[in-house]
Inverse folding.
């Protein structure tokens, strides 16, 4: 999916201070990193800020990039760590809406701004896909990120192990567990896919 | 009579279901993969489970691609300090022992012309020695001295590369 040799050439040009090479790297990874950040946070503003911070961090750390690794693994590692840190910092903002009660003890909806896709886009997407996105979004962060890396970014188990700095066996077990959780959540919500 | 308790799945079904994800990921050894395949042909319950997983895989792989906002690149490119980055290039180069720094060798020794002249002189001296036109010891001395600049530079480069590759390996988190 990502061309390791071409990436390495661009990184070397970046290290020499070539602006055009960084712009090209940005073009290659823009949507992948933004997509990962959006699906991790489900908030347009947060996703944009996080993805931009990832690219600026990448630029500032370029000299520490070890060329024996793929650039794609490195940038995904920075992005996943950044998103998980963000979710940890903002844990209070991601409380479940189920079972939230008002001051009088009556169930109520939290008045959170909806930064998700607008009604037109919702209509365009299939209902099943929306439900699946909702379930994936509700996974705990460590399971969510691994599912997104595997299925959305199409990374191999080996690449995910490098990105998350985990043993291959743990990656495999966590992906299996995440898929099982998705199935259980779909069933619990009576969603069909 | 219904007892309200589910009958435990036969061992072959449990075994096949435990391997379903590996089967779909195509990470099972051939023999085990074949065993799962054959079991799926015979067992409707496990086949239903397989079909559910297949549908889930397909949908997960079908999540619509997302595009970054229109002004995404401009904000980043404006925020990246290229000038400062270029100005700090000497500070960013990996730290190596002083003997491995280019400048530790005299500039005249590193210059291309000296290295080239040295190599030509060494070749000429060896050629003269081989044809008998020059004394062996003198020719070998000239050849040794002639090769010295090129060998010093190459040896330093090689040592530095090995040092950087072994000592400066890091992947930031």
């Amino acid at each position: 999916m990502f061309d390791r040799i071409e990436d390495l050439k661009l990184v070397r040009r970046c290290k020499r201070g070539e602006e055009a090479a960084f712009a090209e790297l940005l073009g290659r990874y823009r949507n992948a990193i933004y997509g990962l950040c959006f699906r991790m946070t489900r908030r347009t503003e947060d996703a944009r800020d996080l993805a931009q911070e990832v690219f600026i961090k990448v630029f500032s750390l370029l000299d520490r990039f070890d060329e024996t690794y793929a650039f794609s693994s490195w940038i995904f590692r920075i992005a996943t760590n950044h998103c998980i840190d963000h979710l940890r910092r903002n844990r209070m903002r991601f409380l479940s809406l189920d079972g939230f009660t008002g001051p009088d003890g009556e169930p109520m909806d939290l008045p959170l701004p909806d930064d998700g896709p607008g009604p037109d886009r919702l209509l365009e997407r299939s209902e099943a896909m929306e439900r699946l996105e909702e379930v994936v979004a509700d996974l705990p962060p460590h399971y969510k990120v691994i599912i997104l890396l595997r299925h959305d970014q199409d990374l191999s188990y080996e690449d995910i192990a490098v990105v998350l700095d985990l043993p291959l066996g743990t990656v495999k077990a966590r992906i299996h567990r995440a898929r099982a959780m998705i199935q259980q959540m779909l069933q619990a919500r009576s969603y069909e896919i | 009579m219904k007892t309200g308790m589910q009958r435990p799945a036969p061992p072959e079904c449990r075994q096949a279901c435990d391997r379903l994800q590996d089967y779909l990921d195509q990470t099972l050894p051939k023999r085990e993969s074949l065993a799962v395949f054959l079991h799926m042909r015979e067992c409707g319950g496990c086949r239903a489970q397989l079909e559910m997983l297949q549908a889930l895989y397909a949908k997960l792989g079908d999540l619509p691609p997302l595009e970054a906002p229109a002004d995404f690149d401009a904000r980043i490119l404006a925020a990246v300090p290229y000038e400062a980055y270029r100005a700090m290039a000497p500070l960013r180069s990996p730290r190596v022992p002083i003997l491995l720094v280019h400048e530790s060798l005299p500039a005249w020794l590193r210059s291309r012309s000296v290295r080239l002249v040295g190599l030509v002189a060494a070749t000429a001296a060896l050629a003269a020695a081989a044809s008998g036109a020059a004394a062996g010891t003198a020719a070998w001395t000239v050849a040794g001295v002639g090769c010295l600049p090129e060998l010093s530079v190459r040896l330093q480069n090689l040592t530095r590369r090995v040092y950087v590759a072994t000592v400066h390996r890091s992947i930031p988190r």
